[in-house]
Amino acid sequence: xxxxxxxxAPDFMADTTEGPIRFHEWIGDGWAVLFSHxxxxxxxxxxxxxxxxxxxxxxxxxxxxxVGLSVDPVENHKKxxxxxxxxxxxxxxxxxxxxxxxxxxxxxGMLPAEANGGADKRTAADNQTVRNVFVIGPDKKIKLILVYxxxxxRNFDEVLRVIDSLQLTAKHKVATPVNWKHGEDVIIVxxxxxxxxxxxxPQGWKAPRPYLRIVAQPGQAKRG
Length: 224
Fold this sequence. Notes:
Blueprint: E1 13-14, E2 21-22, H1 23-27, E3 31-37, H2 43-61, E4 64-70, H3 74-88, E5 96-98, H4 103-107, E6 132-136, E7 142-147, H5 156-172, E8 174-175, E9 186-188, H6 194-200, E10 206-209, E11 212-215
Parallel strand pairs: 3-4, 4-5
Antiparallel strand pairs: 1-2, 3-6, 6-7, 8-9, 9-11, 10-11
Helix pairs in contact: 2-3
């Protein structure tokens, strides 16, 4: 199964470090980030899990829940948390899914359906494609998919930046330009006519080209 942006996020039941969840029910009416790992006690993932624990407050501000997944048992996740705390200064403060039978990894297209063996029979290299970040919206649709190699730590500040952009677009019919950061100018989406735009943006806009209408970020509020 290949997932694309705009697809409904596959629902599932799973055991986690914080008890069993049904994914769609756990998301509720908010946003969520699911990020996956090929194996417990791996070095790059250790740094990522610690960073996400420290950054959780930023996701909370945006109404975004975090859940991790690793192709190992929940009991191992709990042991790994001690290492993460000791080396990164923070342990996971969000649920970690155990996917020992690879069911969720396959359901989400991170491993091929024919992948065999349980977690104990596979190495991190066998599971190297289980290195995804998914952002899911309140409508349970996938809004972002990022896939990283095992040797490159993920940039979760970039994930926050994308969430800011996605949430802004969902509310105000604007898009964000290259390297945009919260508080900077945005672009009126092409599906909004000039007549509509005048009502929505009475202060006007700059238009170096008719299709490129630049306007101050609407509803701007400080982060922090």
